[in-house]
Amino acid sequence: MKKFYLLLLFVFSISVVGFGQTDSLVFKNKDVIVGEIKSMDRGVITIETDYSDKDFKAKWEDLIGIISKTNYLITLTDG
User: Fold this and answer.
1) 21-67 is classed in which CATH architecture?
2) pTM of the prediction?
3) Contact yes or no for 23/47 (Cβ under 8 A)
4) Any idea where the domains of the chain sit in the sequence?
5) Long-range contacts of 11-16 (CB under 8 A, 24+ apart)
6) DSSP code of residue 61
7) What are phi and psi of 45, to 5 degrees?
8) CB 37 within 8 Å of CB 71
9) 48: how many CB neighbours lie within 10 A of its CB?
10) How far apart are CA 76 and CA 56, in angstroms?
């Protein structure tokens, strides 16, 4: 019975941690940053995380993927 409660606590804690952070950036080197995308401007994307005091900035060309529940309007320079 004790194992069941520990498992239940573990599952609940994982779901609470991931609740506020719905966006992920996937880099070419397979690193992933999880947080909340704040802005995308001139080839630089800014993401806020719970585990850093400062926002992360990444160049668009360094990414292979963005995972988000939010829709974004992306405008290319060539139309």
Assistant:
1) Roll (2.30)
2) 0.65
3) yes
4) 21-67
5) none
6) G
7) -110, 135
8) no
9) 15
10) 22
